[in-house]
Request: fold
Amino acid sequence: MPFTTKYEIWAWYFYEFVTVAFFYSALNFIPILITSQARDMAKENYCLMTNRTIDCNGWAKDYENIGQCSMGDYNDNTSCLHKGGEWTAEISNEASQVVFLGVEQGYASVVQISITISIILQIIFFILLGGLGDFGNNRKNLLILFNTMGSICVCIIFFFKDYSLFYLNALLYIVSNVCFGMAIVFYNAYLPIFVLNCDDIVAPNVEKKRRIKSNELSSNGMSYGFFGILVIMGINIGVTLTQDDDEYYNTRLNILICGLWTLLLPMVTYFYLKTHVGKETNGSKCLIGLNQIISVGREIKNYSQLFLFLGAYFVYSDGFSTIGGAGIQFALVELNMTIESILVGLSVVPICSIIGCAIFKHLTTNTSMSSKTVLMICIPLGMIGPIYSITALTTPIEFYIMAAFLGFIGGPVQAFSRSIFSNCIPNGQESEFFSLYEITDRGTAWLGPLIVSIVYNSTGSFRIAFLSLFPFFLIGTIVLYFFNPELALREKNSIEAR
Reply:
């Protein structure tokens, strides 16, 4: 393979800079749009069901008169808002129901159910197509294909503006999530290839230098991604503050910008990123991914430490991903925050993530701190989130503090998890194993949102639903404790020598 060039590495960084527009912006705005549309659909259904003589496009009577005002003893929504307060409604269960996929359910659970479905589909695609990236020119071609398809789906959401079409936006949300999940498999597969072909890694201590280089590239990539979040969020905030008669327009416009951003800007990466031709294809292309996964499964005893790490990642990654995504729902439902206020909190996360990545990258490069130690520090700290949500978290300021804290520990968890796993992968099987990595990530990623959805539907409280995420951090920490990075490296070298 050709040596890795600085232009190729910068192109790789740039892709992460660009695609965060989907993972950290579109995946925030799309749930906001779907939840808002589903909520308005629920209000209309309740109005028609009860034959009320009020405007069916407005809030149901229960919303107007039953609740609490953030300031003063104002006993209805209108007087509270007129005095500058925020109204927290106590809506009856019937006023919160919509029909989605043929089942009546709470409007706030539509997004969580959509996430669950998309994750199940992602796992299927990872199994069938993930390993295909290790053959011929497929890695780069599949990256381009799935990125383009996902971006187009995001753009289409802009045109479904009526709240009665919330279910179509939910379906597009599912498809786009699947496509970008596949694209990130082939993107991540470049990391071990870059490290293996860096011409500045020479004897002695080659393996140690490779681990340091992997930490450097992964952390830098994440940092550029978080910087990309700040840029796209700056654009999003500017759009959101623009007034428009259509209450959904600004949210939809932000989604369209994200779609165009991820559709057009990656062309820079496509130009500079080398193909890195893989193995020759033998047999049916449709079965390559499945056959490779089966092959790895048969030799699982030879990958004991790699799969032990995946077991830990299987759990703690879902804790972080769910608490981040459901945090927006929490702000909307429990804190009754506006979209503008939520955006402020979301902008804090990437800043603190960049700081966290920089600090821990410095420590692992200049001290004896290992990548595993970074995870053993950050993951247990994630348990503070669920506890804090049930004991406090009643104001936007507290929401911002928690967002900053989770950003500071969440960024390093992502960067160093990817780096550790990259160092365990046998050469020539990068896409195959990163498909396993994503399967592991998504394997329980359906579980967190599903638990949140079930608990919310049962209790009507996102606070209690958040508390249910506590075991993900605890169990993940315990399993990770038994992972041995040095033994994982010996297993990798043994497999490559066969």
Observations:
- Residues 52-64 have pLDDT under 50 and may be disordered.
- DSSP finds 21 helices and four strands in the chain.
- The radius of gyration is 23 Å.
- The domain at 6-45+98-496 is CATH 1.20.1250.20 (Growth Hormone; Chain: A;).
